[in-house]
Design brief:
Residues 115-159 form the Transposase IS66 zinc-finger binding domain. By secondary structure, the protein is α/β, with parallel strands linked by helices. It has helices at residues 11-42, 47-69, 83-90, 180-191, 197-206, 213-238, 283-290, 303-310, 322-332, 339-357, 363-387, 395-405, 407-410, 424-429, 431-440, 446-464, 469-482, and strands at 154-156, 163-165, 243-250, 262-269, 272-279, 296-299, 317-320. α1 runs antiparallel to α2 and α5 crosses α6 (213-238). The two termini are 57 Å apart.
Length: 498
């Protein structure tokens, strides 16, 4: 009976199957290249063009093979001598890590009475004042659910005209059975640690609490309704910045016929990020995110942003990301060795940025460095791109086209020190949401997308500000229950562990 890849669970058999498939794939790649060569020769095509086309066929086939069997990485091998040794020297050892944020609990161990006797002479052992043999270990105090019965004392006056009742704890919902801290715990577990509600139900059952996922969702939803003004305020505060980064990623709406059209959009600054989950990647969705933003916006190559900028009357200025431009050359470097020249020049641009970070932070100093060192590198890179001969549809041709079409946005950083070299901060801000998508598979309702965007915005922003995310949710919710203005994460003092 043949191997059924869909149902086979034996790791070794699957590994053997993968090796066989990879070998067969390489054989077919070689055959396709050979047949392509014969066909193009028969058509009498130019020898140089023939070589370019064959190289592109080989690149496309190699890329498909890498997508199936290779590792996903944009890291380039280091060529500098001594770099490897330097890395080895900097690698941490295997000793115990310092734990400055953990509370220290001292446990004293003493001898049993029967052991307080000298085995040599039989005399009684006396304590050696101040002498201890000490060792540390990290321990865990298990989470515990309790059923609290709140008894609110009643008071009355002897005149019979007044009865008062002591206040109880603040409630997310009138008459609700679950505490505010319980709701915060569930929300943090889902949107900070990415645990789906069904998984939380199973964990809680092991810890003695019988609950269902609908009940957990009710607590999360009630907390989100209290914190909705903070989400809107965070969005409004970001739109007042001079420069923002933007990105988007897929976020399915489960059960929807158009679930694959739904995307999570992000606006990011160094100390804040806000998300909106919307249907589509069109200009309407981007305008809903950007509203009347009139600053500098760093993005990737999505054409939607170009459309929005064109319709903004010059208020929105697009700048582009060198990380995305570099990625195009990385993808084609194996088939087109000349792409290494572009990668080396782009690496030199990043070296200038690292040089700046080694000194005092000063935008004038950064602008001077960029004018003196980055501008000549850009001129060389532009000349190199103009001198290349590559098919427009080839990997190298597409990389040069991508860079050339966005050259104005890619070079804006040389004249404006506020503009970063890439959009890495925004891409890093999307990681938590992407991990959540892998665990949650998306949202089940439109309300679910709104709650997801809210909690990821507040929690990820708290992390950027160095504020404990769970502490922030609790303090923000308490402010909402008191009727006070809800603080944003940057308005709280950073956590000790931050």
């Amino acid at each position: 009976m043949g191997l059924q890849l869909e149902t086979e669970k034996d790791v070794e058999r699957l590994r053997q199957a993968a090796l066989l498939l990879e070998a067969e794939n390489r054989r077919l790649v070689a055959r396709v290249v050979e047949l392509t060569r014969k066909l193009m020769s028969a058509q009498g095509q130019d020898a140089e063009e023939l070589q370019l086309r064959l190289r592109e066929v080989e690149r496309q086939l190699a890329q498909r093979t890498a997508e199936l069997f290779g590792r996903s990485s944009e890291k380039r091998p280091r060529r500098e001598q001594g770099e490897e040794d330097k890395d080895k020297e900097a690698a941490p050892g295997h000793g115990p890590r310092a734990q400055p944020t953990l509370p220290l609990l001292e446990v004293v161990h003493t001898l049993e009475e029967a052991d307080k006797q000298c085995p040599q002479c039989g005399g009684a052992l006396a304590e050696m004042e101040g002498c201890w043999e000490e060792a540390e270990e990290v321990d865990v105090v298990q989470r515990r659910f309790v059923l609290q019965r709140h008894k609110r004392q009643k008071y009355r006056c002897g005149c019979g005209g007044c009865v008062e009742t002591a206040l109880g704890p603040p409630k997310l919902q009138p008459g609700g059975r679950y505490s505010l801290d319980f709701a915060v715990e569930v929300a943090a577990a889902k949107y900070l640690d990415h645990l789906p509600l069904e998984r939380q139900v199973r964990v809680m059952q092991r810890e003695g609490l019988t609950v269902d996922s609908q009940t957990l969702w009710d607590q999360v939803d009630a907390l989100a309704r209290r914190l909705a003004p903070a989400h809107e305020a965070l969005h409004a505060a970001l739109l007042t910045r001079e420069i923002l980064g933007g990105d988007e990623t897929r976020w399915p709406l489960l059960g929807s016929k158009s679930q694959t059209r739904w995307h999570a959009w992000a606006l990011c600054a160094p100390d804040a990020v806000v998300y909106r989950i919307q249907e589509g990647r069109d200009a309407q969705a981007a305008r809903h995110l950007l509203q009347d933003f009139d600053g500098i916006f760093m993005v990737d190559g999505l054409s939607t942003y170009e459309s929005v900028a064109a319709g903004s009357g010059g208020k929105l200025t697009l700048v582009h990301c060198w990380m995305h431009a570099r990625r195009k050359y990385v993808e084609c470097a194996e088939a087109f060795p000349q792409a290494e020249e572009a990668l080396e020049m782009i690496a030199a641009l990043y070296a200038v940025e690292r040089e700046y970070k080694e000194g005092p932070e000063n935008l004038e100093r950064l602008l001077e460095l960029r004018q003196h060192k980055s501008r000549p590198l850009l001129e060389r890179l532009h000349q190199w791109a103009c001198a290349q001969r590559a098919l427009p549809q080839s990997g190298l041709g597409q990389a040069i086209k991508y860079m050339s079409q966005r050259w104005t946005g890619l070079t804006r950083f040389v004249t404006d020190a506020r503009v970063p070299l890439d959009n890495g901060a925004t891409e890093r801000a999307m990681r938590g949401l992407a991990v959540g998508r892998k665990n949650h598979y998306g949202s089940r309702s439109r309300r679910g997308t709104e709650v997801t965007a809210l909690f990821y915005s507040l929690l990820e922003t708290a992390k950027l500000c160095g504020v404990d995310p769970k502490r922030y949710l609790r303090e923000a919710a308490l402010a909402a229950l008191r009727g006070d203005s809800i603080p944003l994460p940057h308005q709280l003092a950073p956590s000790a562990e931050g």
